[in-house]
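re: ur msg from earlier - yeah i can do the adenosine-5'-diphosphate complex, just paste it... oh wait u already did. ok heres what im feeding in:
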Amino acid sequence: MSDAAPPHREATTTRTGPHPGPSTPSAEGARAPGDGGGPQEVRGLLDSLGPLLLEWLPRQRWFAGKGRPISGFALVSATELLPPSGAGPGLLHLLVRARQDGAGEDCYQLLLGVRDVLPPHLAPALVGRPADGPLRGRAVYEGLTDPRLAALLLERLRMPGRLGPLRFTREPEVVISPDLAPRLLDAEQSNSSAVYGETYILKLFRRVGPGVNPDLELPRALANAGCARVPAPAAWFEAEPPRAGSEPMTLGVLQPYLPGSADGWQLALGALAVGADFTAPARALGQATAEVHLALAEALPTTALDRHRLEALAAAMTHRLDAAAEAVPALRPYRAALCAAFDDIAAPGGAGRTWRAQRIHGDLHLGQALRTPADGRWSLIDFEGEPAVPLAERRRPQPVVRDIAGMLRSFDYAAAVGRAPGTGWADAARAAFCEGYAAAHPDDPREDPRLLRAHETDKAVYEVLYEARHRPDWLPVPMSAIRRLAEGSRAAGGTPV
Ligand SMILES: Nc1ncnc2c1ncn2[C@@H]1O[C@H](COP(=O)(O)OP(=O)(O)O)[C@@H](O)[C@H]1O
Ligand SMILES: O=P(O)(O)O[C@H]1O[C@H](CO)[C@@H](O[C@H]2O[C@H](CO)[C@@H](O)[C@H](O)[C@H]2O)[C@H](O)[C@H]1O
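and the outut:
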C-alpha cells in the first residue's frame, strides 16, 4: 500500500486479511459476526466500516491520537454479542487497531449497535450507514447509548462465561440482580461508563492493550487486602490474547456505584464559589491516600529507590519534558530551569533519604476522589494511571510522592479554575493534604521537598501536553505552574513546593 494513498481509501483496505504485517495480530484470531464468519467476511466488515470510523473515531473524547490523521485500520477481533432480529438491535463487539503515521498503532474497543431503523432518541449516537459489506445500509451506532444493549452487557457479566475471544468473570460471592436499568454517563472521560440501577458502574476501557489493566489489578489487590477505600471489582471482562504468549486485554470492570457521591473537583470548586476553606476535606483526603498507599505496599512488591533508580527517574522526567516541549513550544523557554529540578534528585543525596517505590494510583487528582455524603468518607477511583503512558510503564513501582504531587497540582488547578484570590486557598489545602497524609503514613512527603518538586514539575509538564491536546483553553492553568516551578528552581537552592 502506498503511503501516498488517500487515508480514506487506505483505511478501508489495510491489514484486515489473513496475512497481517508483523505488528498486527493474525486475522485468524479475529472472529466475524454470525456463525463462523471467515477472513472474507472479516475483511468485508472492516472495509465497509473503515470510512465511517475514519470520521467518527477522532471525534470521540476517548480517542487518544488527537491531531494526527489515521492512516489505516486493522481488525483484531469481531464478536457478535447479539444478532439483529427484526426490529430489534444487534450488538457487535470490535477490537480495532488504528494506525497513525509517525505514532504507531493503538487498539480501541468499540461496541456498535446495529439497527435497520434508528429511533430518534438514538440519532446522536449514529456512527454511519456502511455503503457495502455485511452491514450495508444499516444504522451502525454507539451501542452503550442503547439501554437494551447496555443491559445485555450486564447480563453477560451476571452470567459469566466465554463468547468467542471474550471472557466474562464475576467474583463468586457477588450477586448481580437482573433488570438494573442502565444509563450512560456523559462525563468528560478517557473511557466510557454506564451506571446500572444506581447499584453498579461499568467502565469500558477504550484504548486497550495486552496485560491486566491496573484499574482492575489494583482495586482487586486492595479489596483482597481488606482496604475499603476503593470500590471492589464485582465482575470484569477480557479478550483472549490475539497471539500465543501475549497477555489478555482487560476490556471492562463492573464495581459498586457510590450513590450520591461527589468528586473532589466538584467539592473544591463548590467551596471556592462560596469562599470556604477546604482544609478539613483535604486533610481527610491525605489520610485516605496514605491508607491506600500502605495497603498497596502490603499487597504488592516494593523496591528501594536507590541512586541508580533516581537517576533513571530524572532521565525519564527530562525525556518527557523534551517530548512535551517538542509538541508545545511555550514550554521551551523554561526547559533549563525545569531540568534543574530533575537533576537535583539524581545528585548525590538528592532525595534526602531513601524512599521506596511501590504500586501507586498513578494519576491522582481531585476528580479521582469521591466523597459519600452520609459519612463524608473519601474513596479513590480510576487506578488506570496516566492514559498516555504505556501500560507496562504504568504497572511499574513508583514513589508515592508521584501521587501526592498529582493531588497537590489538583488543588492548584481548582484554585485557578475557581478564581481563588491569591494563593492562600491552594496553599492551605496543599498543606492540609500533606498533614493528613503524614498523620497516617510513616513517610512525610514534606521531608523531601526536592523529590516532591521534581514530581510536581513532571506532572505540570504532563498537564501542559494533556491540555494542549484535549482542552487548549485550559493550557494557561499548568503553564502558570510551570512558570512558578521554573522560578523556584532558578532561585538559589530552589523553593520547596
Ligand atoms: N464507584 C463509583 N461510584 C460513583 N461514581 C463513580 C464510580 N466510579 C466512577 N464514577 C464516576 O464516573 C466518572 C468516570 O470514572 P473514571 O474511572 O474516572 O473514568 P475515566 O478513566 O474514563 O476518567 C468519575 O468521575 C465519577 O464521577
Ligand atoms: O480523569 P482522567 O483519568 O481522564 O485524567 C485525565 O484528565 C484529567 C482532567 O479531567 C486531567 O486532570 C487535570 O485536570 C483536572 C481538572 O479537570 C485537575 O484536577 C488535575 O489536577 C489535572 O491534572 C488528568 O491529568 C488526565 O490524566
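cool cool. The pocket of adenosine-5'-diphosphate (ligand 1) is lined by residues 185, 187, 189-191, 193, 201, 203, 231, 255, 257-258, 261, 263, 367, 370, 381-382, 384 (CB under 6 Å). ping me if u need the other ligands too
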